[in-house]
Structure formats: C-alpha cells, structure tokens
Amino acid sequence: MAWTILSSWFFGVFLTSLTGTVSCFFWKLLEFVMEKKKQFRWIVFSGKLVIIFYLVPVIYLYIYFSEMLIANNTYMYTMVVTPVILYSIVAAFLIWFVGFCVGILRYFMQKQNLKLFVSCSVPADLKINRIKDEIEKRLALKQSVAVRFNSQCSVPVVMGVRKPVILLPEQEYDQKKLRIILEHELMHVKHRDLFWKHFLYWISKVHWFNYSFKCLTDDINGWNETYCDRDACYGEMAICTYEEYFDTILENARVKPTEKLLFTMYLYENKKGIKRRMVRMRHYHASKELRKVVVALLTVCFVGVSSVTAFAAGEGMLKGYDALTDTTANKLTEADVTNDVETIIPPGTDIGIIEIEVPARTRTYMDWTIPGDTGYRTGPFWVTKGKKIATSALISPGNKFINLGIIEPDGTRRQVSGMSAVAHTFDVNYTGGYCVFVENRASSEITVQLLYEAQ
C-alpha cells in the first residue's frame, strides 16, 4: 500500500515535470523574440510564471479525473495499474529518491560552508555603512542589509534571505564605484532574487532528472542580474550611466570568483554571463517597454497556450498509458484458464465461504493475501450497460483453486474457476454498482495479484 502511494506520487512528479517542460519550451521561443525587442519586464515576470507548471500537476490531475466514473455523486477511479507498470514506477521512484537525498545532503553542506565563509568576515567601516544606508533609503528597502569585509571573498557577493549580508573583498574602494557595487547588490535584495534562488534550488531537487528545469533556473538567475542592471542604469533612480556601470563590473571581472557558493548573487560570475548582460543593456530604452496592462494580457495568453498544450500532452500521455497497460496486461491474460465457462449464482445463495470486502475505490490492481476458505471482494464501482469488466488473477502457489468473478447490482454472482492464472471478461447487462471477487477454495493461504478494468 505504501509503495503504491509513493509510486503514485512520483508518477505525479514525473508528469508535472513534463508539463513544466512543455511550458518552458514555449517560454524559450517567446524569450528569443522578446529579448530582441528589449521587453525585459515581460521576460522576467513570465519566466517566474513558468515555475507554476513545474509545481501544479496539471497532466496528472487531467489523467486522474479522465479515468473517473461518476455515480450517485461518488467518484470511482477506473485507471488500471498493471504489476509491470507498478514495479517500473517503484524502481523509478527509488532512483529519484536517491537523487533527491543527494540534493538535500548538498544543501546542508552548502549551508555549513556559508556559515564558515561569513564567519571569516568583519563589519565594514562607518563610511561604507553610511553609503549603504543612503541607498537602502532611496530604494525603500524594508530590511537592513549588513556589509562586511571578507578576506576569502574575491568578488562582491550578496547572500541571505531573512538576514541578507553583502561581502566585499578587503581592498580600497573608489566612492563612485563603491556606490555602484552596493546599488547592484541591494537591488538584488529589493527584487527578492535571493528568495528566488533558494526557491528554485528546492524545486530543482524535486526535478533533478529534468534538464529543462536546470536551463530555466539558469535563465531566471541570468535575467534577475539583467533586471538589476536595468534598474541601476536606466531606472527611475539610476545613479550612473551604462559605461560607468559596466566599467565597475569589468574591473571586478579581472578576478575570477575562486569560491562557488549556492544561494549567493555575485557581482560577476563568468565572462559569458557579463557579455550577455552588456549586450542586453546596450541601446536599451525604458520608454519602449510594454505597459503593465499589455504585459498582463500577454501573460494570460502565454498561460492559456501553455495550459492547452499541457492538456493536449495529457491526452497523448493517457493514450500512451492505455497502450502500455494493454501490452503489460497481456502478460497476465496469456496464461490458460482452467475453466472459462461462467457459473451464475443467484442472489442469497450460500456460497459456503467467508467473504470480506476490501475497500479499493481508487485502485484496480490488488495484491491480496487470502486465508483458506475465504473470499475477498472489492468495493462497488459504477459500470453502465453494454460495457465489459475484464478481470485477471495470478495465484501463488499455482496449484491452488480459486473462483474469480463479479457481483451484479442485484447480488447475482458470475464466476469462472481455475488455478495458477485465471482471466475472463464479463459482459455488463445492467447499469449499476459492480464488485469483483476472488474466492480461495483451498484450505491454506494464497497470494493473488488481481487486475480488473471496466471497458
């Protein structure tokens, strides 16, 4: 039972990752167009919206509710999970879980490294703190940010969500360039980029197997840098020109960061990144940015197209799953049935064994251990007239005799008998609630893998 739940959860993670990948693909196409048009506001905003598709299990919910039958205001799940599919998902879950645990371990190691890194720093002097306070006030920051010198720091860096801190290399700073450095790092705090860095990290550990999310994370972090560049050079409170700004960053780029810490935002990370930022900001004009209303409309269209595509992918996934179910289910039905002739038992007939109902309204695959001279049956599920109920059972040990059948709405029992492997498809003559049952006719305990489906 526990493995079934965990496997179902992982299946949802996998399908959600697929949804996110589809949305990310559309976003990358639009990003290319919008970058040419310098529409940075929309790119930054919509990029973060894509994350929703990696969180909300759209396809999983679509498949889940597509396989529901509704009767008397009650949902009955009819999706088949064959043993082969179940075991495959369990194996995939175990692999995913190992990768997830490695990510969690790395998180705690990095947090410890950050604490050690910050512990090697000392508070900045009063002059620097005054400049920092002026910028904080001008940017209307709601929290105070500490500034410290660090002997191990090669490039200015900001870190921390609840208690952010800026670390500066120990050197003399020109006042103008110091303002630019602090402006850039404090802009990250204002935009809550460090929160997004943490948030993306945790989601990436869930989707560690999906390369598309890594690409999305890198893109969002890169656009967060660009957005800070935009506000520092062209925003309403810009304090420098494009040339002055990137001259300061390029001066720091002479020293490549020697430390690689998670959950931090560096003034400069690599040559490729700084070149991309400079190209994006060249010839930028804030007045050409789309208005917020237009940005909102474009975003609604983007979400709508992504959702429709996700549902289409869900339909395709459902058909693929049905085909896979048919393929794997055949492994159960290929075995010979000892007696394929239906036996009909009228309602109220004493069948001579103890019968126990096993609630199973959300599963159509059962793994039962049935005591001797005992029968197990499922809870009722709704089937309409004209359909069929396909059943199959694997018995262990294979020399034990069972009855496999259905109970009709009026209580009539229809069954076939056999050993080792038993399979039969029952015609549905009446609309109503049906149960599937397995009777152990032996005196000793048996294990039964039961698969049934309303078709």
Automatic annotation (TrEMBL):
<keyword id="KW-0472">Membrane</keyword>
<protein>
    <submittedName>
        <fullName>M56 family metallopeptidase</fullName>
    </submittedName>
</protein>
<dbReference type="InterPro" id="IPR008756">
    <property type="entry name" value="Peptidase_M56"/>
</dbReference>
<keyword id="KW-0812">Transmembrane</keyword>
<feature type="transmembrane region" description="Helical">
    <location>
        <begin position="290"/>
        <end position="313"/>
    </location>
</feature>
<dbReference type="Pfam" id="PF05569">
    <property type="entry name" value="Peptidase_M56"/>
</dbReference>
<feature type="domain" description="Peptidase M56">
    <location>
        <begin position="91"/>
        <end position="278"/>
    </location>
</feature>
<dbReference type="InterPro" id="IPR052173">
    <property type="entry name" value="Beta-lactam_resp_regulator"/>
</dbReference>
<feature type="transmembrane region" description="Helical">
    <location>
        <begin position="42"/>
        <end position="65"/>
    </location>
</feature>
<feature type="transmembrane region" description="Helical">
    <location>
        <begin position="6"/>
        <end position="30"/>
    </location>
</feature>
<feature type="transmembrane region" description="Helical">
    <location>
        <begin position="85"/>
        <end position="108"/>
    </location>
</feature>
<keyword id="KW-1133">Transmembrane helix</keyword>
